[in-house]
Design brief:
Strand order of the largest sheet: 4-7-6-5
Shape: elongated
CATH topology of the largest domain: GMP Synthetase, Chain A, domain 3
Order of helices and strands: HHEEHEHEEEE
Distance between the termini: 51 Å
Pfam families: FeS_assembly_P, Zn_ribbon_PaaD
Number of domains: 2
Organism: Candidatus Segetimicrobium genomatis
Oligomer: single chain
InterPro entries: Fe-S_Maturation_MIP18, FSCA_dom_sf, MIP18-like, PaaD-like, Zn_ribbon_PaaD
Largest sheet: 4 strands, mixed
Protein name: Phenylacetate-CoA oxygenase subunit PaaJ
CATH class of the largest domain: Alpha Beta
Strand content: 15-25%
CATH superfamily of the largest domain: Fe-S cluster assembly (FSCA)
Length: about 160
């Protein structure tokens, strides 16, 4: 028996396919989408970026608009950025955390005071090499055991 998917279901499914251009994750895995409101053919999406100066924001906003405008019944899409509550690692899904580890990025645990673990060899014999990584949300560490550089998401501020 076929099921009827509502427009809201289709919107959430479409959002689950919008990728962050810098990471192997979707906006849903990162926990960037706060709210979706629909009024007729108008869709309003509220999104909290990982950092206010994230260079991927405009790309993700455009991808969201494009995907949602391709849905039947959607005529207009507004993607609002929200900074009311800062993004934290706690918003990321377990699937997102696993994908980052598989991609070779170290991810802080949900407990803040743990040492940095190397995603390549599992060692915690690591050192901060540079607090400024390839993006604002990452830092560079060095594993003293396997001698690999490590990109790691910065933990949330205390």
């Amino acid at each position: 028996m076929p099921t009827t998917r509502t427009l809201e279901d289709q919107i959430w499914e479409a959002l689950a396919t919008v990728k962050d251009p810098e990471l192997p994750l979707t906006v849903m895995d990162l926990g960037l989408i706060d709210e979706v409101q629909m009024t007729g053919g108008r869709v309003h999406v509220r999104m909290t970026p990982t950092y206010s100066a994230c260079p991927a924001i405009d790309v993700m906003r455009q991808d969201i608009r494009t995907k949602l405008l391709n849905l039947p019944g959607v005529e207009e899409v507004q993607v609002e950025l929200s900074f009311a509550e800062p993004w934290t690692m706690a918003r990321m899904t377990e699937r997102g955390r696993t994908r980052l580890l598989e991609h070779g990025l170290s991810v802080p645990s949900r407990r803040s005071a743990e040492p940095v673990t190397c995603p390549f060899c599992g060692s915690t014999n690591t050192a901060l090499e540079n607090p400024f990584g390839p993006t604002l949300c990452r830092a560079i560490y060095y594993c003293r055991d396997c001698r690999n550089p490590i990109e790691r998401f910065k933990p949330p501020p205390e």
